[in-house]
Write a structure and sequence with these properties.
The complex is a heterotrimer of chains A (336), B (257) and C (277). With 336 residues, chain A is α+β, with helices and mostly antiparallel strands. Chain A contains eleven helices and twelve strands. Chain A has two domains: 184 residues, no CATH class; 122 residues, no CATH class. In chain A, 51% of the residues are buried. Chain C is an alpha/beta fold. Chain C has seven helices and 15 strands. The chains are: A alpha+beta (336), B alpha/beta (257), C alpha/beta (277). Chains in contact: A-B, A-C. Chains A and C meet through strand 4, helix 3, strand 11, strand 12 and helix 9 of A and strand 1, strand 4, helix 2, strand 6 and strand 13 of C.
Chain lengths: 336, 257, 277
Amino acid sequence: MKPNYISEDSLARLVEELSSKGQLVAPVREGRSFEFARIKRGEQVCLTYTTSTIPPKSALLPQVEELFSYDVKSGEVRPPEEGDERLVLLGVRPCDSSAFSVLDRVMGRDRADPYYMRRRDRITVVGLSCSQPRETCFCDAFGTGPIDGSGDDITFTKVNGGYVVRSKTAKGARFARAHSKHFRAATKKEVDEFESRSREIKAMLASGITSEGLADRMGKSLEDPCWEEASERCIECGVCSFVCPTCYCFDVTEQVEGDSGKRYRGWDTCQSCRFSRMAGGLDPRPTKVDRFKHRFHHKLSYVPMAFNVMACVGCGRCVSLCPTNVDIREAISKWQ
Amino acid sequence: MIGYEDGSTSHRTRPCFVRSPEDTTRLVWNQYCSANLAKYLLGRKETVGVVAKGCDGRSIVELIKENQVDRSKVVIIAPTCPGVVQNPGLGGEGPEQLASYCERCRGRNSPIFDFEIAVRWDPEKESGGVGDKTAYHREAIDWASEFQRCIKCLACIKSCPLCYCTECELDGSLQSLVSKLRIPAELPTFHLVRAMHMAGRCTDCGACEAACPVGLPLAELYSQVNKEVERLLGYVPGLDIQATAPIELPKPRGEVE
Amino acid sequence: MAVNPYLTVRARIENIKMEIEDTKTIIVRPRIRNAKTIFAFEPGQFLQVTAFGVGEAPISICSSPRDSPSIQMSIRKIGSVTEALNEARVGDFIGLRGPYGNGWPMEKLRKNDVVLVAGGIGMAPLRSLMLTLPTKGDMRRTTLCYGARNPSLLMYRSEYANWTGAGATIRLTVDQGDGGWKGNVGVVTNLLEDLDADREKAVACVCGPPIMIKFSIRKLVQLGYGPDNIYASLESMMRCGIGKCGHCHFGAKHVCIDGPVFSYSDMKELPKGFAPV
């Protein structure tokens, strides 16, 4: 398929159009950092952002959501109302978009999660290639960037005056057609620029880390004493899980008022001392180092074994935001 | 020996645990030492050394009063703190600024120590500290909006040395005050209850603010509560090891549980 | 919405039976059309049981699949959900999701000698097997070795006559006898010697506290039972029951999907610290 082009001006008009219909979710400034938010006015959108604090997985897996409501006495169960909202998620970095592929495998396996699948179906992912990797980026280790994300429906890559646009899925092609007045075919010059910039940016990502053979070697590392030292400064806060684009574990809880109740599910962290503890107190991961090890093994070994995909996309959020600077790259380098 | 070493990215340090003389070369001391190492004193039976900023040392004073730290089992090294840099989160651009809580600092050296190291910081030099004139300021804070930005990650609780309960009521454990999940209506409850738990105990070290991934102005909140404690009870946490803390029960001090 | 595996189905408690201290058996009937098909289960599977207003917990089914759609579960009071279920009354409604899990290896069990090793409340998922397997006149031999701390903690005692009547051999033991106890005293592993079973081919199913599972497996291996023929039902913290919430994910396996029944060979592959081996 031949690439298209959208100028900055045309993109601004497209953004206005989508936001006026209440359909656009894109990165906005939040203090000194960035968040994905529902866009009301086009000028809120900031596509020169580096990365958001909370990953856009929140559009597919909200931090809290109602599973159903019920009557406590009779056990009548009512699923939540289904909205018909279709959203455009604009400006998703390749790492975050590749994370969607991981979530798809987990949530989509037999007895698929209907809440997730419905949202996934109704969201168009407009990927945005990176132009300025951060010190903590290592998407090259997992092949999850910096130009294309595997969860993209359509990818925008910055060139002079605008973006080269490539549709990746049928949904992306439909999006391009539906908004065709904003796109035109890319010129050869633009395509050449796209290719040379892509090469430049890829060369910037030389983390020296590779994930080849990692799942296997990581899986065999459970007994190694290095984990004691690595985990010593960890304070078990769980920030890593919350800002991670591939973390999907959730807890389920009830909220009751009188005779009616609601069951909710929401983000959980395996770093919590209650994550694997059973009623009665038995716990297969009773200590901090057990839970610390589990995070790395789950992402880099168990998920690959069970779902055939690495559960780390090299976005680097955990590296920047861990209060004690636990660095997953160190764990990967050691066992790669 | 619990101290700070260079982090894995620029302009960061991280806690480190030194167990041999050769390893002491890892230790650093600069304006990026924002973690409160008193956290790592909890639950220890053996004697440890710890590097303490002024505020961290004041935390240790309160921990001693609450029988969580045995003074005879801690060797405190107290260098002069340059003030720490405000955590830029994932923004990162712009010049470094002194953390807003460091502007309120009650003393850049720890009030208790075994070894005190006077350091003169000169912000004109590259490794001279961050300087007091460039503090990070927030305009008037809309607390209701701030609370709604919270993601209930509990980093504030886990980074705080004064939070040592093994089962935290704010962590959604059975029959607790708030759900484990991030229920928006409960966020003010979470923060206000935490603020009350900090009354008369928080030493404004800002580790909570430094740990918060969304940059909530938590130290500011607790400092406002403690302003009231100071006004009503004349007590400032951590300044005086002899002064009885408002939270102390009238019983002999010094028995570590 | 497409089929929603998170929605719990209400079920009426038709009957409640006192078993042992803190443990009751509830007999429930799901209130949904095609309950027999929807809740068709195999021995060893479990349900995610909701105590409305309190929460959900995984509970093994202890009845025979033939009684479906009537389902029985023995519930010991150990946390808030099981406590609420213990305090429920006939006519109350609970919620059911499932059946989940892989169940005992029925095909193997139908073709070979069977040794069931139960400890305490671990008898519950094995009762389902007991009610399904032995048939008088069958060439296979079924033996149950069951141990509890004391005689008052042996479950389903009123049913043993039926089980032996159906062709099974039962060996019992307690850690501590009481005045009236005339049977074996000692750990359940003592009962494993000299069983009527072809050790090379026999299939063993173990269920009970982790330490009991550990020593039973050890003894069975010592006695010559094959590692691929020794199975245990393991417990885990669970939330969704369908392999999505991550709580029961160990190594390549989810306890709710690839378990809770694991062979000894499989258990050895799981990350250390989870399986009692």
